[in-house]
Amino acid sequence: MLPASAKVPHKPPRKPSTSMGRGTRKRDEDSGTEVGEGTDEWTQSRATVRPPDQLELTDAELKEEFTRILTANNPHAPQNIVRYSFKEGTYKLIGFVNQLAIHFSQIGNLIPKDSDEGRRQHYRDELAAGSQESAKVVISETENLEEDEEPKELEAEAGSQTDVPATGAAERVTEELITPVQPKERMLTNKFNFSERASQTFNHRLRDRECQMEPPPRTNFSATANQWEIYDAYVEELEKQEKTKEKEKTKTPVAKKTGKMAMRKLMSMESQSDDITKVSQAAKIVERMVNQNTYDDIAQDFKYYEDTADEFRDQEGTLLPLWKFQNDKAKHLAVTALCWNPKYRDLFAVGHGSYDFMKQSRGMLLLYSMKNPSFPEYIFSSDSGIMCLDMHVDHPFLVVVGHYDGNVAIYNLKKPHSQPTFRSSAKSGKHTEPVWQCSKSYSSQFLDTYDAHNMAVDAVSWNPFHTKVFMSCSSDWTVKIWDHTIKTPMFIYDLNSAVGDVAWAPYSSTVFAAVTTDGKAHVFDLAINKYEAICNQPVVAKKKNKITHVQFNPIHPIIIVGDDRGHVICLKLSPNLRKMPKEKKGQEVQKGPAVEIAKLDKLLNLVREVKTKT
Would you state the pLDDT for residue 571? Predict the structure, then answer.
């Protein structure tokens, strides 16, 4: 090393050599390469030149060690990704960044050597290797033959024509030897030999698609309405009404004629409808007679059939399928509500809508009768799905309906037209959310609250006999029975699937039914078994169908269940599911609400005693 100020001495130019003597060109004895003039200058030691910006380091600094830690972080990964937070209304930096970098990936499969496919491939490889070795041997033999035949060919050129066919034969032999013999594939001895195989399918790569967008613009608007502004608005509305009246007066005679023709058409349609109404009653009776003949076996089962096998079952019962009610117009709509008519016990109403709140469409109100299961008695359509319905107790021809869009409508069965007789609006104070059966009042109006379920509560029902007992079901697979004076449930049942609806039986205070989304109906009788259902039975044809609602008939021993495909199925309870107290000799069987209340109180007292002891 020289100091920065040192200069390298100037090297004089080399003289060109003209003579090619011993001193000008030498040959290396070891390598045999020629070495030109000037080799002595390169072999001499040369002084190195230090750059002007080189640092001067001491021996201690040169010996100092610097450690570097290798991490798995991707140095090319972006560290400044931001996303918009709608909660805080600002762009926020993302702390987690994906550090994975894939350099090479290959998808393959493995075949065991002991399998048939592995043995077959190994056999093919051996055959291919053997054919290659045989071809090499044949080629080497042909080369030896060619070397031996060279002098013979010289003799053949001299004019011997007898050797020509011999050479042709030799060529054929060599060609036959060179061409490898194709081995035949080994056939399996047993053609019906079956072996189970597994295969790996190609997994598609997952793709993440993200997009960033600007937040929607927001503006604050406020205004006040004075008395004169309201007055001006009313005056403008009156002026518009007067202008429309003047336009109607100034219409041409042709327009008046067309209006008269339209009125005549309406009159003719009304007259035709009047003629149809005269025959409609008779047509309805004939239709019911035809259906009675068609479904005579089902009607006989409904009236007289009793499952005699219940005598041999250990307090368990069954459900007998009867009629199935469906309509093509409500094919893709779920059953969202069921209700029996309080006066006509064979008539029930079905509300159709959708529980998929991302796919809301139209709704329908259908009323069926067990006397005519093939077609509904009344059909009403609506623009929004129906979420709940009920019938008036004193006026059974009035049906009230709650829609998904928050409207409430009343239909009059005495006036069977598509439009409801009453419909709420924004002026009359309609709801802003879907109308459910439960109350949506403020929390200040609640009498009490219960920490009942872990998921959505699908239905709540009071016991028709005991005023303190109610029942709830939820999507967390549980049904719970409560005493409203106690915060903890009296009975809890886990049904292994989301529970869509529950209903109390009208003939007993201890019997209730529940339906689950796996297509099963469960019937409980607390007086017989307090721990599990006495009937668990699938009631829909397909497992994909989810049961949504269930209702007991007020008089007959039947229930109706609805699914998410718009179907309603009627089922008859076997004798074990509707057991009544047995008559004793010399004693009358006590019946009535008081007996049912005492029966349920007896069960509740047993549970209360156990809870107080624990």
Answer: 92
